[in-house]
Amino acid sequence: MKFTINLKHISVLCIALLVVNVMSAQEIIEEEVKKEVVKKVDSTLAKNAKKVDGVAAVVGDYIILDSDVPREKEQIIAAGGSVEGITDCQLLGKLLENKLYAHHAIQDSIQVSDAEIRQEVDYTIQQFLQQKPDINELVKFYKQEDEKGLRDYIFEIIKGNKLSNKMQAKIVEEIEVTPEEVRTFFDKIPEDELPFFGTELKVAQIVAKPKVSEEEKQKVIDRLKQFKADVVENGASFRSKVVLYGEDPGMKQSGYIYTLNRKKPKMVKEFRQVAFSLQEGEVSDPFETEFGYHIIHCEKIRGQEYDVSHVLLFPKVSSEAIKEAKERLEKVRQSIVDGDITFADAARASSDEKETRGDGGQLINPRTQDYNFDLTKMGPEQYAQIQNLKDNEVSQVLTEQDRKGNLSYKIMKVTDRIDEHKASYARDYLKIKELALKEKQIKAIEKWQEEKILDTYIKISGKFRDCEFSGNWLKK
After folding, report:
1. I want to staple 224 with a disulfide (CB 3.0 to 4.6 A). Which of 141, 173, 286, 323 is the partner?
2. Which of 209, 23, 198, 7 is CA-nearest to residue 98?
3. pTM over 0.85, yes/no
4. Within the chain, which residues score under 50 in pLDDT?
5. Contacts (Cβ under 8 Å, ≥6 apart) of 290
């Protein structure tokens, strides 16, 4: 399909940017004081920058420095992207859009949680340190004075990106396409420009998970009860229990605090119910979720927000249970191969994966929410498991390990295969609908930008005034 997605369209549809550019708040700059703008950069930037550079542009309450443009290019390269053919003018246009979204997010009273941002700062730094183990190297790379300056720098970036993303999401949140609009969209595509869709598969699986004994579950519950008693009765540190014994890796990444909001669901339902029932300083009784067994400590309550910490323990699975699960699945596989039972009926009767059991083991593509998987977009692990399977062939018993280290076994089957083909309205309706929706969203964002550019104080300086932007940033 010969749709040209230019840099602007990529920018407006992107919902998850990481480290992109400096976000520095600035009072709206009037014409008569434009030469003094570099002296009014926000306190964070002023403390961390050795030398304030020139101003490339001003958008509402935000400024873009001359150095932001090459830094944007460096960030794209560092993230594995290509900047070939991308000009400085296009990069500035992208930065202008980000600032426009962030500015109007504030005007529209869109808020982001500082606690949530701090958690992401901690996580981001941890990710960076896996590549650059020395924090001082990281500080130097981002041209900051110290670790605090680095954290402030990343905080402003993430905050700006969150505001920008929320503003974009708000613009398109109510946009939908009707079947008639989908048909109109499809009909207007010339025959020789119809998109080609790659080979697609429908895949089913049957899973056998080793069973945890009731005795082992009780051991975990008793241990959590001891932790609670030590904290409540002996004044022990709950944080020390989390650090020494907790098995949730996300705790360390978040600084050992999760911030929950009553209006914005986060964590599984059982966890939220217990957390929101606690008083400040209270420790819960042990309870179970799909992830294991927990006790929660309510650190602080701020209106609708609860800062909580928790100890998560996983019951251990015995070697006998692991062996039993594998042997059980091998028998199921043999019954299917012998023709005694269909794969779908065997999945409904014996699979331990509740999400797929009712559909006869059929996997749902999380991206498209249908049963079709594009062979070229499968994850490498899943692709390796099914690439050599013939249609209706049952795989050997495969071993799988989840992020918690738990072993399980599964057998897989390709239940249908659609070879690469030119788009068909009936067969590919969901994909065509997605393309139609994206086009409608792009148009809505373009219209919003056109209106807001005219309503917002925008000043482009220096060489960038000669740029030919895709948007009317120069207000000509």
Report:
1. 286
2. 23
3. no
4. 1-51
5. 268
